[in-house]
């Protein structure tokens, strides 16, 4: 199955999962494919980042620009540059799952990669509401990337 366009959705909540998200998306995308990075913001996050970046309210800055300039966006794009993987950066304001679904449709994504965490010992099969909605409603396959526990990270690190 061709994976020419992989949508990698991320937010500031994914900082602890960057390695897993990056490794998953880059291992799946075709060699000549493109990763669409989507950073979804709520209004408060968007305004906070705009303020930190000293962006004037009257400037022609788009959510795509804010996504590119956010700390997590810069980190992922630097890694993609180093890996030689083609990508585009998109930003969106609003409800996360709806924005992911809209973007996956507009880019005709072959696969969506979304992160999350286990909810509880008894709820390991349950995903957060965002991931669950994307898993159920996306028109393409969805890969759910769970954050590794600290114990697993330490065990995987070379001595």
TrEMBL record:
Pfam family, one: Usp
UspA domain ranges (all copies): 27-146
Domain of life: Archaea
Family membership: Belongs to the universal stress protein A family.
Descriptive protein name: Universal stress protein
